[in-house]
Amino acid sequence: xxxxxxxxxxxxxxxxxxxxxxxxxxxxxxxxxxxxxxxxxxxxxxxxxxxxxxxxxxxxxxxxxxxxxxxxxxxxxxxxxxxxxxxxxxxxxxxxxxxxxxxxxxxxxxxxxxxxxxxxxxxxxxxxxxxxxxxxxxxxxxxxxxxxxxxxxxxxxxxxxxxxxxxxxxxxxxxxxxxxxxxxxxxxxxxxxxxxxxxxxxxxxxxxxxxxxxxxxxxxxxxxxxxxxxxxxxxxxxxxxxxxxxxxxxxxxxxxxxxxxxxxxxxxxxxxxxxxxxxxxxxxxxxxxxxxxxxxxxxxxxxxxxxxxxxxxxxxxxxxxxxxxxxxxxxxxxxxxxxxxxxxxxxxxxxxxxxxxxxxxxxxxxxxxxxxxxxxxxxxxxxxxxxxxxxxxxxxxxxxxxxxx
Length: 405
Prior knowledge:
It is a single chain. The mean pLDDT is 95. The chain is of the alpha/beta class. It has 16 helices and 14 strands. The termini are far apart. The radius of gyration is 19 Å and the shape is globular.
């Protein structure tokens, strides 16, 4: 392992720096008005979120409302069907609302409450972030607007219904490809008009500083729990861990718990239908450095240098860039980034369902598929998968487009 002399004992003290950079990636590339709003959020995060009162309340919420800690499950039948490598899953599908997203949404909404804001807004792709934020808004009595592309609204009808039942205003975005990137565009535009009275609760480790840091920190609970649970269960660390990466919130929090350990770490991007531009969303594999949505990272670009069209069967992964920390960890060599296509993800979706009684989100199925592939290569050891969410939201779409396998 070559980590370029990075000391991971002090990693979180040094990255991001005061300007929000992980090496060359990150930063805050937005208008002066929004920079002032981001500075307000940054100051509040560094003061309020470090206070005992905030931490105690967030811990209580996680335990009494979210149902944390979520368990680690040994996937024994699936493991035995492959060989000697033992597979385990960190069960974020059992977190309240069915995915990891509530971890940072409750933190962001609690911060909004402490800052005296009346409204929270966000984008969503697969709908899990939207459901989580609508849940947080209902819990704290805040107004909530969720921006969602019309394509994703059709694919994720159950989550759209959940958001509306929870009292959120779902704003349909119809321009461009009408998926996650366009939803982010629309949410940023709305935030530029309303920032004095609301917070834009970004749904991943993307966007201008402080969000890549803040979302990672709120998601760190996943990696922290998983590490201690796995050691308690097995007496040792896993050989490898793997998680899906779109923007990369579940993986950022999961990886954070293991960065200083002798563990191989894999991030799994969506290869979609293939390597042709527009058929996938594997930015770290095929992208180049560029700025979008207020941050510098690795992104997929079209012939004009603008964000390229992207595609994935997983609505939560079809984003043309990735979090700046993921780009940094890739450059350091600490995390290896690989890809899984639609077909393998769908196969893993059914395989985990049939062999373990767990219906995974199609996003999480990318990590399951990667773990199956990796297990065949490793021959021995153990792999811990971040099962970032459950697949209720995907069942109708998968059956309609792929049938029952």
